[in-house]
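Dear Dr. H.,

I hope your travels went smoothly. While you were away I took the liberty of generating a structure for the chain from your last submission, since the lab meeting agenda had it listed for discussion. I wanted you to have the full record in hand beforehand rather than looking at slides cold. The sequence, exactly as received, is reproduced here:
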Amino acid sequence: MGWKRGTLVALAVLVLAPALLVAATVGWLQTTTGKRQLVDLIESQAAGPEFSLEIGAIEGSPPFDMALRDLAVADADGVWLRLDRATLDWTPLSLLRGVVDIRQLALGTLAVDRLPATAEPAEDAGGFPTLPVALRVERMVAERIDLGAPVLGAPVGIAVEGSARLDDIADGLDVTLAARRIDGTPGDGRLTLLYRPEDDRLTVDLALGEPEGGIVARALALPGLPPVAATLAGDGPLDGWRGRLTAQAGGLVDAAIDLSVDDAGDSRRLGLTGRVVVDGLLDDATGPLLAGGLDLTATVLLRPGGDVEAETLQIAAPAGALVVEGVFDPGDNSLDATARFALGAPAAYAGIAPGAGWSDAAVEARVSGRLARPTIGITLRAAHLALAGLAADRVGATLELTASRGWDRPQPLAGSGTL
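The corresponding predicted structure, in token form, is as follows:
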């Protein structure tokens, strides 16, 4: 019997020890010393050659209901972001279910004095970013976000509030977001994105409106900083869903695009048709190239395995017609696609290439392999070409580039041509 009792004691220790350790750690975090050492741990783990994080204090009852005070983020040029307080009320044990469950995330005043120094991108991102866990936020609020003049060219103050449930799309999607200017300048935006799997229904409602000198116009560096308005609306069953996107920026841009989602067997087909007019952004030289706008048509298949197939993507303007077809595999970040651009009439190019002429001219490019190290082939052809005082009945060229060493190193290059 002694060995049985010893076995039971050993099992009890194995089961209870982790629980006791967790309880002791949580208890230690409630002490002033524990909170200070937690701050030190976070700051040391976040530190890098050109990055530093400072936290004034952690308050409350970490890791459950806690607050950060006086947070500052710096790069080699100094502090560029400050936050006076942030409170987090969440359920840490939900991580055991693969869910970040936040009841409330509240920010006080977040000040971004400037943009940080640009970091070097990773050599290979490895595909689209994805969340490792589900995210559920019942309420998120930022009382004030102040953007310094170096960010957008003028100081901007906004308030933001929203909620989110980002999980497996099969379990539904629910995102709401509202933002408004609080610096004396009008302007606001809202977004509702809701997918209910029980009746396979998608609701999208986006509205944005700003006067002259608004955030969007500054972010896009639109000439004259015109008023900007945009809407995206659609509501209905996912199979057969229809939506419409409109956008205007003074007299510079006017866009109207119809969107669709349809069943395609084991896939979903996304469709897009519309026109984008940008005549207000053009000068005398470039105006003829895009006069009257760009006509857009696209159909894309979303495959069950995650592959994205562009059945067709067409953009047409006086400058010519672009047609793209291909397949993107987000699993290994690879692409197999072809793009063909047939030049329009020489008259459209009179402003940038006066006197040029041709009867048939086109460029075709093919990309295959991982995006970090693709193989690219380019073919050019033209008939009855006249350019810069030279004339040729027929011109052709091929060029192949293999970025097998990565984009940061010299690459093998091969080409040939005919004249």
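Two observations you may find useful: The first helix runs from residue 2 to 29. DSSP finds five helices and 21 strands in the chain.

With kind regards,
E. W.
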